[in-house]
What we know:
By secondary structure, the chain is mostly helical. The protein has helices spanning 18-23, 25-33, 37-45, 47-51, 58-66, 69-74, 79-89, 93-101, 105-113, 125-129.
Amino acid sequence: MALDKPYLDVPGTTVFDAEQSRKGYWLNQFCMSLMQAGNRERFRYGERAYLDEWAMTEAQKQAVLARDLNRCIALGGNIYFLVKIGATDGVSVQRMVSTMSGMDEQEYRRMMLAGGRSIEGNRYLHEQTGQGKSH
């Protein structure tokens, strides 16, 4: 039985729920493996070979190789685990998140210091189209 998920009506938002957790289990386990120095070294030495040791989907592997964090999240990745890829690459969380927003790091920093992103364009889908659920 599918659960009612009103949060699916929020554009650009992926909630890490039980379904996402199941979908991203091996992707997130891979990320957690990067907490060990030896695994980070193995990943840096041969990214594809290391990824192939994990029961991830090909789409998940490609998203990691491309460092496409939005795609990783859509495929079940949890940002708290995904930041371990950035740490392995020597990339700050701020830089990682800026790539997810389509901004460079300085633009992202300025936006956050100015109070964050505008609500415009970030409303419920039914508010944008006039269709869908009402809350």
